[in-house]
Specification:
Number of helices: 14
Helix content: 40-55%
CATH architecture: Alpha-Beta Barrel
Oligomer: single chain
Low-confidence stretches: none
Radius of gyration: 19 Å
Largest sheet: 8 strands, parallel, barrel
CATH topology: TIM Barrel
CATH class: Alpha Beta
Mean pLDDT: 96
CATH superfamily: Luciferase-like domain
Length: about 325
């Protein structure tokens, strides 16, 4: 079944406004709401960075059915995985079967300023992520966990408040290594739209499948989720201009992964021309065009589409998209 979600733009709005948008998303027929967990936003000027786990608790209390997840948190540096297991265990016990923990290897922008650390290479970041998933799953499934890994240790650790069914972990990936890990151990796989088609077709999804096969898991045992970047408005120029706030998303991984200052990220993003700033987004005023440009992702096997809109009027987007585009998506893809 197709799931249609809302990406809560934590870097763009105050937590209270963002909460209202999440409530409206549920009322408008969205199936899920996912929020990033950033210590610093992509932009310093006008930026925000609410604490995701506290915010998710507020969303759970204000809503009734919508799935609530991180896309994504990094349970490796700012947070010890035991603390993440405790926080998410609490959320899962309060809102059973509604919480999802999306995780990734992280970015220096969120970890270096908070800790004053030296940003490590991918090998260590990936090793920490893999080990943190193992530890969190143990803490949710076992009592008095003594764990001794390469990066983390616990001694008779117990998570006292946790749901009967462990919170599902989704792994985000932009390359082959993390994609394989998602297939091996995760309940879901997360990536983002707007990149070269061959990345999804030749690298990400085949490696998810390879991980599933290596672990002896069925092909349909993982939720394939993609954040789809859409700028949809009744005015085409406005839809294009709205992407400026999120111009940093058009920077390559090489351009932004090691950037540790929100002001520097803002400077790099503002230097981009509008056409490049808009390049990651499906910009249109036509619902049918939206469906056709989303079609390739669904045909690749993504059945959980989480829509990220860049504009300042999120309430307008939520109502417009749910009324004009959702019926066409559901008719086209089930």
């Amino acid at each position: 079944m197709l799931k249609l979600g809302y990406k809560a733009s934590a870097e763009q709005f105050t937590p209270s406004k963002l909460l209202d948008f999440a409530v409206l998303a549920e009322q408008s027929g969205f199936d899920s709401v996912f929020v990033s967990d950033h210590f610093q936003p992509w932009r310093h000027t006008g930026g925000h960075a609410p604490y995701s786990f506290a915010w998710m608790g507020a969303v759970g209390a204000r809503t009734n059915r919508i799935l609530i997840g991180t896309s994504v948190a990094t349970p490796t540096f700012r947070y010890h995985p035991s603390v993440v297991a405790q926080a998410v265990g609490t959320l899962g016990s309060m809102f059973p079967d509604r919480i999802i923990l999306g995780v990734g290897t992280g970015e220096s922008l969120n970890e270096v300023p908070a800790l004053g650390m030296k940003w490590p290479g991918f090998k260590e970041r990936f090793g920490r992520l893999k080990e943190s998933i193992e530890l969190m799953n143990k803490l949710w499934r076992e009592d008095r966990v003594s764990f001794e890994g390469t990066y983390y240790r616990t001694e008779n650790a117990t998570i006292y408040d946790k749901p009967e069914n462990p919170v599902p972990i989704y792994v985000a990936a932009a390359g082959p290594t993390a994609s394989v890990l998602a297939g091996e151990v995760a309940a879901g796989f997360i990536c983002t739209s707007g990149k070269a088609p061959e990345l999804y077709r030749e690298t990400l999804l085949p490696n998810v499948d390879a991980g599933l096969k290596a672990a002896g898991r069925a092909p349909d045992s993982i939720d394939r989720m993609i954040e789809v970047k859409v700028s949809f408005d009744t005015d085409l120029q406005q839809a294009k201009e709205d992407t400026r706030f999120w111009a940093a998303l058009a920077l390559s991984a090489e351009e932004k992964t090691s950037v540790k200052d929100a002001l520097e990220m803002e400077r790099l993003a503002d230097a981009l021309p509008l056409d490049r700033a808009a390049s990651r987004w499906i910009v249109s005023v036509d619902p049918d065009e939206q469906v056709e440009r989303i079609r390739p992702y669904v045909e690749l096997g993504f059945r959980h589409l989480v829509f990220h809109a860049p504009g300042p009027d999120q309430a307008k987007f939520i109502k417009l998209y749910s009324e004009k585009v959702f019926p066409k998506l559901r008719k086209a893809f089930g």
